[in-house]
Amino acid sequence: MSQIFRNYIAGEWVESASRKTFPNINPANTDEVIGLFQDSDRVDVEAACAAATQAWESWAALPAPRRGEYLFKAAEILESRLAQLAADMTREEGKTLPESQGEVKRAINIFRYFAGEGARQFSYHIPSEREQVFCYTLRKPLGVVGLITPWNFPSAIPAWKMAPALVAGNTVVIKPASLAPLSGYRLVEALHEARLPAGVVNFVTGSGARAGNALIECAGLSAVSFTGSCEVGNALYQKLAARKLRVQLEMGGKNPTVVLKDADLDYATDILVNGAFFSTGQKCTACSRAIIEEGIYEPLVQKLVAKTKQLKIGNGLEAGVQIGPAVDARQLETDLKYIEIARQEGAQLLCGGQRLTGGTFDRGYFIEPTIFDGVTPEMRIAQEEVFGPVLALMKAKNFEDAMRLANSVKFGLSAAIVSRDLTRVHQFINRIEAGLITVNLPTAGVEYQLPFGGTKESSFGMREQGPQALDFYTETRTVYLKYTQ
Ligand code: NAP
């Protein structure tokens, strides 16, 4: 009998009005139902929004350092359960246990970081042109914020939206991804146990088309922060712009790693394998294009293919496994569809390309890490996000050609360069069209204390994480105060 997980509305764990549920299934072992979650509808989401509206005034009136104390307490609770939470995450999302442990730790760090922001929340004192006038700014919370999150970082992303929203004095309704709702549930459970006042956080599960859509249509909402696909994000934006709501969209990527001919080949190989294949390529910041300068192309590709073939694929709970499954049947189909498209468009398959079958592989959505050679910029594999372990190789004649190739996509989330040439590295940093730029590091692997977000079609609105996260969740007020009459 599967455990039933309920919504969290107005400080109570409640069933959806319809009492319908949906299963959360382990992608590494589809026989395992991790739990049943509420298949919520408009009426549930509206109840959550009403609870958040009711709770807002007193939450906003609480001094920010005291709001932060709830996050500190929740972080402590989460830390005491880290091992269990990481195992939950691997079971629902498929990433390896060390990856899940790292992510839960990151969610804890995010709670602590923004708990501390409660005592900072910097604003400005700016000198006035006039005598005896004191000018400064204040940060005010927005009200009720709607948060919609994806499955690939099921703990970190809910944490990096909820924590700044709460410490800034907003109340929250969060709808997590249906493929991995348990990790977000655990965060809310910890906030509940930290005795967060009723209604300050509300958690509602259910399909994007119904629960998600109902959330963005809720009256009384002040802002929406969304992370997910461009398709859904852009559609949400159309609706939210018509309501003049503040919106933050973090979406897809087609992230390049440029390797220049002075690079150490073994080092570059590790960076490419890590960026392209870890977490099964299911990171928005994963590398999906390797742009390699002539001169090192053949030897680097040889090393890359050899290393990729050695990767151990399997259930992420098993020691030594480096790559888990695709998150579900649909993502697996997408990966295989793009592999077929790449073949038809003339790219040459160097390794991988198949679903893994036989033994325990038959119970999950396992796929081989895949590399295509001879990819040209107009091919779909060079332009569209696959969101799986599929790497496109492109040969660049020189640095200029590499820059042209790197910037020839509509996305701009992350980008890496591997080189010891300081001049080229700085030129890359100045010219690359990406919000997150790494040098001699993989395209993925960002830290919570720095701003996060992309450019071009990857993102819209203000940055997440780091001190800038508070800008989205607060409104600036400007005060001119004359202290004599
Ligand atoms: P998705 O299909 O766009 O779903 C994201 C969230 O939106 C889920 O909670 C989903 O609910 C919900 N949703 C779907 N349709 C909706 C609608 N009509 N109205 C309101 N909400 C709706 O994305 P995903 O497959 O979960 O995640 C993968 C994508 O996320 C990739 O494109 C990846 O690049 C992107 N991503 C970006 C970042 C970043 O920071 N830039 C980080 C991580 C992931 P259901 O789960 O119920 O469908």
How is the secondary structure organized here?
Layout lengths: L3 E2 L1 E3 L2 E3 L6 E5 L7 E6 L3 H20 L2 H17 L1 H12 L3 H21 L7 E3 L5 E9 L2 E5 L7 H12 L3 E5 L6 H12 L7 E3 L4 H10 L3 E7 L2 H13 L3 E5 L4 E5 L5 H13 L9 E7 L3 H13 L19 H16 L3 E4 L18 E4 L6 H4 L6 E7 L2 H8 L7 E5 L3 H10 L4 E4 L19 E2 L8 H5 E9 L3
Helix pairs in contact: 1-7, 2-4, 2-6, 3-4, 4-5, 9-10
Largest sheet, strands/sense/barrel: 7 strands, mixed
Kindly report the CATH topology of the largest domain: Aldehyde Dehydrogenase, Chain A, domain 1
CATH architecture of the largest domain: 3-Layer(aba) Sandwich
Compute the number of structural domains: 2
Distance between the termini: 74 Å
Mean pLDDT across every amino acid position: 98
User: Percentage of helical residues?
Assistant: 25-40%
* Fourth CATH level, the homologous superfamily of the largest domain: Aldehyde Dehydrogenase, Chain A, domain 1
Structure annotation, total helices: 15
The low-confidence parts are none
Notable characteristics:
Aldehyde Dehydrogenase, Chain A, domain 2, globular, 21% strand, alpha/beta, binds NADP nicotinamide-adenine-dinucleotide phosphate, seven-stranded mixed beta sheet, 2 domains
